[in-house]
Amino acid sequence: MNAPASVLVVGASAAGLATAEALRRKGFEGRLTLLGAEAHLPYDRPPLSKQVLSGDWVPERARLRSETTLSELDIDLVLGEAAVSLDAAKRQVKTDRERELAADAIVIATGVRPRALPGTAGLSGVHLLRTMEDALALQAELTASRRLVVVGDGVLGTEIAATATKRCGSVTLVGPQAAPMEQQIGADTAKALAALHAERGVDLRPGVGVDGLVETGGSVSGVRLATGEVLPADAVVVSIGSMPATEWLAGSGLRVEDGVVCDAHCRAAEGIWAVGDVARWHHRGLGRSLRLENRTNATEQAGAVAAGILGAAGAYEPVPYFWTDQFDVKIQVYGLPGPHADTEVVEGDPADGRFVLRCTENGRVSAIVGWNMPKQARLRRAEIAYA
Amino acid sequence: MAAPDVFDQRDEDGIVVLLDPSPGDEQLDAVREAAGVCPALAIELSETP
Ligand SMILES: Cc1cc2nc3c(=O)[nH]c(=O)nc-3n(C[C@H](O)[C@H](O)[C@H](O)COP(=O)(O)OP(=O)(O)OC[C@H]3O[C@@H](n4cnc5c(N)ncnc54)[C@H](O)[C@@H]3O)c2cc1C
């Protein structure tokens, strides 16, 4: 395929901006439009549950690029305007301001939206966390006298619980797993993480589902567990996963199944690509389709998509990677630990609060998990079977 | 890690350290790439001919 004369990127956050930058870095000189629903200049999300939520950073510090850097990219940056439909065959996008944008190549980078607990819309004191507004609204609720309950023991919920202890007198973390983040870091590391949280004052309620919220006069006053017990709460964060932002692709002609379905090159159709949290592509090394919701993937996949648009032939098959910072612990995860992996400490010692764990499945290394040993963990990434 | 001749990571805490503050032309692409992908946005590059 010849390099296109124009590219439209829909979604102006980590993945969309990184795609635009990678296109320019790789020499693309055509017309480049970046369309984003949020009115803000592109900002980064990982700090929202860390430095922004704790109040250590002012919101501006989470910006991905300065205004000067953005203007040097020579892009049409259209903010506060959302795509409402796509015609994949014509490569045309309609926006909520009744505009039609067409381009030779279109990149879908619309990310995900958090799932809410049914029937909780409009209830005061109930929060989701995805945007800067969400982070500031939640931050305002966290004060010493308040009781916060976090519903959901995935990466985000667990991280929010850790950060909230800095501002909140009482923090409870509820979730269905035996230990927080078990699915993402494996049982052994999750146990160590549970111990850390307990030691730092988080009240852990593992292995239990949530039935619903209790309301008093329009505000949340508690969380009802499946066991019937009610945990009193002044504020609740719901962190029970997210859904790809693909409603606008209805009728586009693209296949959407928990993400925009793409081939091994992250291509959804002729001239249509997907990148970041919204993209489900075929990972050749793993031999299956994969959708990753993490920051490093947003940037790396953007590089692959930009190269693909400009005619490069390589498939995208990264070693998945994410990090999380909780209290004074930095966890890095390369690969996918999986619940049935055999694990072995290969560096450091859990008793010293620093270690690297190797996960093996069917005789192949499936993941490397670092606990306060970022460099050592990174150096062992190469042991992963498809690295 | 992108541009391993220019950046390294400290053993104790993983913080990235700069090994070569003015890398040569042959490193330029790798350094640009590193600045582009650094998750902490900690790399600022000024290019003078
Ligand atoms: C609080 C928080 C903490 C996190 N911490 C970590 C971490 O520690 N480590 C890690 O690896 N990852 C972390 N992540 C995940 C990481 O931030 C995401 O993987 C990353 O933001 C994905 O980027 P994206 O551009 O694909 O999607 P998003 O960041 O979701 O961006 C999508 C953008 O598209 C816009 N959009 C949606 N629909 C439309 C439309 N129809 N038209 C136009 N624009 C639209 C949205 O408004 C949004 O701005 C965290 C995420 C959150 C929310």
From TrEMBL, chain A:
Check the record and name the SUPFAM superfamilies matching this protein. Answer: FAD/NAD(P)-binding domain (SSF51905), FAD/NAD-linked reductases, dimerisation (C-terminal) domain (SSF55424)
Q: Which residues form the FAD/NAD(P)-binding domain?
A: 6-302
User: Does the keyword field hold Oxidoreductase?
Assistant: yes
Establish whether keyword Cell inner membrane is in the entry. Answer: no
| Source species of the chain | Glycomyces niveus
Going by the entry's taxonomy, the superkingdom of the source organism is recorded as Bacteria
- Please report the stretch or stretches of sequence annotated as the Reductase C-terminal domain: 321-384
Q: What is this protein called?
A: FAD-dependent oxidoreductase
Cofactor needs: FAD
Give the organism's phylogenetic lineage: Bacteria, Bacillati, Actinomycetota, Actinomycetes, Glycomycetales
